[in-house]
Amino acid sequence: MTAPAHLNWLVNTGNAITSVDGQTVELWELNHAVDAAILSAWAKHFREHYCDDAMLPDLANGMGLSHSEYLTQIKFPDPAMAPGPSVRSGDFAEIIVADYIEYKLGYWCPRQLRYDFKWNRNESTKGCDVVGFKFAQDGVVSPQDELFVFEAKAQLALGAEPQNRLQIAIDDSNKDKLREAMTLNALRQRFLERGERVPADKIARFQNETDRPFKRVSGAAAVHDVTTFDPAHAAAVTATGHFNASNLRLIVVTGTAMMQLVHALYRRAADEA
């Protein structure tokens, strides 16, 4: 699987922070740059989470809108009116974490279905944030198959007072055991509605743990602008009481001018549609 070019900008710093209860927090950087070709490809990748390009002309024409107008008025969270900007930052964090587990860790991560059927563009989608699947052997059910459920939180506004978004992600991750069944069911139902039996059956493999045991991995991520990340917050997090603390992956992603990047991606995604 070839990773999109923008994933070359997401790099592991090689540094880590040990939390108060001994958890390892990986530190990653998103070193984005002004590169029109990469940004255009990234914008297309981003856009197709919300609307398949092949379907876009018919959807836009039905409303008498241009492609750009349809995306900005119907699909994308509002850039200025609350809670649109916070939904934008949250969606961005989820998508970059999905890219991370798919292209850096090698999981199958069917995430487009999470965003393309929103009833309200200015609301976050319910359920587990990011879900990934890994199979020990194709076509064979194995207890070594992995279900990876990740919670992602963002604080991207330049210069805002730093918040411990990683602890919030950990706390929300602890709720994923309750949301997992509904999230898997929703994903499988969407695939069945689209007539896609093969991916639907891949998800079904993880819907009956009693009869078909598997390995469950949990994750929590905080995506920050460099001005809103305080390393002391990462050192202070605790996963005590987390139902899957022994299989919990923690990461922090930082970058410069992150909210400006988010708005620019949405704008380019609409303008180049």
Spans of at least 5 consecutive residues whose pLDDT stays below 50 are: none
Give a quick account of the main beta sheet: strands, pairing sense, barrel closure: 6 strands, mixed
The total count of helices amounts to 10
Helical residues, percent: 40-55%
SSE pattern, N- to C-terminal: EEHHHHHEEHHHEHEH
Structural class: alpha/beta
Computed over alpha carbons, the radius of gyration is 19 Å
Strand order of the largest sheet: 1-2-6-5-4-3
Described by its quaternary structure, the protein is single chain
Number of strands: 6
Mean pLDDT level: 95
Strand content: 15-25%
Tell me the distance between the termini. 25 Å
At a glance:
The chain is an alpha/beta fold.
Structure description:
This protein is α/β, with parallel strands linked by helices and 273 residues long. The chain has one domain (5-35, 95-258). The chain contains 10 helices and 6 strands. The protein has helices at 36-50, 56-62, 67-75, 84-104, 112-115, 165-173, 176-193, 197-204, 231-236, 258-271; strands at 10-18, 24-30, 130-134, 146-155, 215-225, 248-255. Strands 1-2-6-5-4-3 form a 6-stranded mixed β-sheet.
Topology of helices and strands:
Layout: E1 10-18, E2 24-30, H1 36-50, H2 56-62, H3 67-75, H4 84-104, H5 112-115, E3 130-134, E4 146-155, H6 165-173, H7 176-193, H8 197-204, E5 215-225, H9 231-236, E6 248-255, H10 258-271
Helix pairs in contact: 1-10, 2-3, 3-10, 7-8
